[in-house]
Amino acid sequence: VLAPRAMRLTRRQRRALSWVPITVVAIICVAIAWGALSIQNSWWTDPAQTPSTDQVTDDGMSTFTRAGVDYLTRQGVVRIDLRETAEPAASLGLPASGSQQVEPLVPVRAILLGDDGVASVELVEALTLTTDADSVTTVELRPVAPTSWTAAVGQLREDAETWGWREEDFSRLEEELTAASGASDGEYAAALPPVTANGMTIGAMVTIRGEDAPVGLSYTFSPAGG
């Protein structure tokens, strides 16, 4: 008989507990409002906000810390210096020797600085930076996958006007892809020969992963003579 009586709540206790759901909702609302205000006043929504030192270098190049990748995603541009005067890899958030893959939340434009000029690649969805002796030695860019290998070759032909591949390079690439497609049931690839432009060595590769898989297209950039 005593157990049920002990479990009964007094009127004051019921009144106090009635405020619990309201208090929880109020706390949630305050947290959401604070988060929205913080984002509203941050560089995510205000392009005029000055980036912090862990987001870009003093000369405006991208860094690859978590904050740096967030920032380049927000800006829609990744900037990489391949000149002899470039910042050390460690100051970019990269290992002194090794490789690091970066995948922005959305495709970005990549701008690469060479000793004699600039190269640009649109709609890059992933990149891999390789370092040695605390310097960036190679940057691999992977744009959004073309719909077919003929589309990939067409895109590379447009790049040839700037970077210098010749018609015979494309004829050889198409022959290699055609031959590989008849000899392989799985993944196969063919590459254009490296060319030198704007003080950088530039290569390109087309990868076929299967009948229903997207075509892979990748570019590699490294300092000329490096």
Provide an overview of this structure.
The protein is α+β, with helices and mostly antiparallel strands. The protein has helices at 2-7, 11-17, 20-40, 66-75, 149-163, 167-183; strands spanning 77-81, 98-102, 108-114, 117-132, 135-143, 188-197, 200-208, 216-223. Strands 1, 2, 3, 4, 5, 6, 7 and 8 form an 8-stranded mixed sheet that branches. A hairpin with a 2-residue loop joins strand 4 (117-132) and strand 5. The protein is globular and about 65 Å long. The protein starts with a helix and ends with a strand. Residues 1-7 and 31-45 have low confidence and may be disordered.
Question: Gist?
Answer:
Helices cover 34% and strands 31% of the residues.
The end-to-end span amounts to 89 Å
Number of helices: 6
> What is the molecular shape?
globular
| SS-derived structural category | alpha+beta
Please state the CA-atom Rg, rounded to the nearest Å.
27 Å
Question: Mean pLDDT across all residues, rounded?
Answer: 82
**DSSP strand tally:** 8
The percentage of residues in β strands lies in 25-35%
Q: Mind describing the biggest β-sheet?
A: 8 strands, mixed
The share of residues in helices is 25-40%
Uncertain regions spanning at least 5 consecutive residues: 1-7, 31-45
Query: What oligomeric arrangement do these chains adopt?
Result: single chain
Order of helices and strands: HHHHEEEEEHHEEE
